[in-house]
Design goal:
The complex is a heterotrimer. By secondary structure, chain B is mainly α. Helix content of chain B is 85%, strand content 0%. Chain B has one domain. Chain B is flat and about 55 Å long. Chain B starts with a helix and ends in a 6-residue tail after the last helix. Chain C has one domain. The N and C termini of chain C lie far apart (75 Å). Classes of the chains: A mainly alpha, B mainly alpha, C mainly alpha. At the B-C interface, helix 2, helix 3 and helix 4 of B face helix 1, helix 2 and helix 3 of C.
């Protein structure tokens, strides 16, 4: 199957599911309008969701994605307690700065998810991406080292392994 | 100077929480809604005094997410689900506004 | 029972909302404010919407809250990233206690190479 067709089918199913979840269906006309709007969305913006073929098996990718979600929520809870402690502390014990990390991911979607996860985890915020050298610029609220290898180990690696399984 | 700021802030917070939770006699949900409204007032302080344009953009973006939580609480209190729709649309528009404003702040045009 | 759990989740969410806004007022420069505000307010609003889901069950009410959670998880980091990059490119400085700024160093390098290319 061609990739664009596959992407359009996935978008159609998702749009229809969201419509059925948001409206209490009492009449067949509501369902018909939902199908029509989903078709419109599919033909306007359907081919942009999936752009490259994935090598892993779908079930394996799904399992890794579940693991990733749990790890992500754990990191997020830790991040929030850390920031809450910083904000309540009277002396504001911060030591901010912008550091660089390397990444091995190649696909655009994988780098996007990595950047979003880094933003929501302890003390870090993605500022920019250098696409040629595969480097991310991170604003870090408590800088402990400026060496690129150590920062990569401390910030990026906990997500990278799972994301490689899911998105590549 | 710092001690003065601290004293004023602590007095304002203590007064607000005392009035909200011990003197005001509304339902629990209304008291929680009051806390979110107080937070929105603090966001507006940052909008007014923010030294740069980026501070103001951040504050307005955060206000959108806060309003999403506020409308969720309102929909629980009145038991009507359409308040969440209002919050979703508000958050969506505030996201688009933030992206457009940050593009202009960066010095690019919107169709760049 | 579900009402109690929902109220507890909502209270946690509101506490984190308040702390995030406190960070927005207290911290020194725009990048630190962005960190505190984005993390804490996203988590707080997520907690409130999760409480709504627990209290209402999986009706259309609950699904609306679920869509809200997915939306803010995707949208808040994106907006934070856009504002941070725009602030750095429009030359808003970091606070004075900052330790290191690799992005500024690399940007100067890129500018110099561009100038050399233009001269040649």
């Amino acid at each position: 199957m061609e990739i664009k067709t596959k992407s359009r089918i996935i978008v159609f199913i998702f749009a229809l599911l969201v419509w059925f979840a948001l409206t209490d269906i009492k009449d067949y006309q509501e369902a018909l309008i939902g199908i029509g709007i989903s078709l419109l969305i599919t033909f306007l913006a359907g081919q942009f969701l999936v752009t490259t073929a994935k090598s892993q098996h779908p079930v394996k990718r799904f399992l890794h994605f579940i693991i990733y979600i749990f790890r992500f929520f754990w990191e997020m809870i830790k991040a929030n307690f850390e920031v809450a402690y910083l904000v309540i502390h009277p002396m504001l014990p911060i030591k901010p700065g912008i550091v660089k990390i390397k990444t091995k991911l190649t696909k655009d979607s994988a780098i996007t998810v990595l950047a979003n996860s880094i933003t929501l985890t302890p003390g870090t915020l993605t500022v920019d991406i250098n696409e040629d050298k595969k480097e991310l610029y991170i604003h870090w609220i408590k800088v402990s080292s400026t060496d690129i290898n150590e920062t990569t180990k401390e910030i990026g690696e906990k997500f990278e392994k799972t994301l490689t399984e899911v998105f590549e | 100077m710092k001690i003065l700021k601290w004293t004023i802030g602590l007095i304002i917070f203590a007064a607000f929480f005392y009035f909200n939770f011990f003197i005001y006699q509304g339902a629990l949900m209304l008291q929680l809604i009051n806390v979110i409204l107080f937070s929105s007032l603090m966001v507006l302080i940052r909008v007014i005094i923010g030294p740069t344009a980026a501070d103001r953009i951040v504050s307005v973006d955060i206000l959108g997410v806060l309003i999403l939580g506020l409308t969720a609480l309102l929909s629980i209190y009145y038991n009507e689900s359409f308040f969440i729709d209002v919050g979703l649309i508000w958050a969506l528009l505030s996201l688009i506004a933030t992206l457009a404003f940050s593009k202009i702040l960066e010095g690019r045009q919107l169709d760049d | 029972m579900t009402d109690t759990i929902g109220i507890i989740l909502i209270c946690i969410g509101i506490a984190f909302d308040f702390l995030g806004v406190l960070g927005l007022v207290r911290l020194p420069d725009v990048y630190n404010r962005l960190q505190a505000a984005t993390k804490c307010v996203t988590f707080g609003s997520m907690g409130i919407l999760l409480g709504v889901i627990v209290m209402q069950g999986f009706t259309s009410f609950g699904f609306k809250a679920l869509i809200g959670i997915v939306f803010i998880i995707l949208a808040a980091p994106t907006a934070a990233h856009a504002v941070a990059r725009a602030a750095h490119r429009s030359k808003i400085p970091l606070a004075k206690i900052s330790v290191v700024d690799k992005y500024e160093e690399d940007k100067e390098l890129i500018d110099e190479t561009l100038k050399e290319e233009v001269e040649v």
